[in-house]
Amino acid sequence: MESLCLPLIDLPTPQTVTMLDGSSPQAGKIWKKANLTFSLDGKHMTETFLICNTGPHASILGLKLLDTHNPEIDWNTRTLTFPHAPLEHAAIAEEEEANKNPLEGVPPEYHQYTKVFGEEEFNKLPPHQHYDIGIKLTKDRPLNLPLYSMTNAKSATLKDWLRDELKAGKIRPSK
What is the pTM (predicted TM-score) of this model? Predict the structure, then answer.
């Protein structure tokens, strides 16, 4: 994984998976994941992958991913195709290289505003104001109704986003 320079994310709780041979990973529980964007014949996809030693295999597709995308598997030819288009190859999307001069092409009169585009300002909330309002919920209505159904991948992405926003202090748990 180090050779790929992937941005690894710590799992909130370690996960246990079963390897192809029925055993557990050599290192025990899995502590890291990575969100990877890749292309399958022009269709861009982003999925979350658990990171562990897969032995001689470059990667192993899990049941969750296979269930979500429901590919067609031809065991005779050992090929995997997705209903939208045949799979010829999967490639990790190239990450944009960091710009050595991020202000290149920005007019000088805007240089004073560069800090608002940084990570620190992005994660900062504006101060509370007198016009901030709360949402008053009625007790005679259920709180936990799903708005709409989501695929497993979308649900996982939403849960990751909510966890990150909670951690950054931008949102708080419902009362």
Answer: 0.40
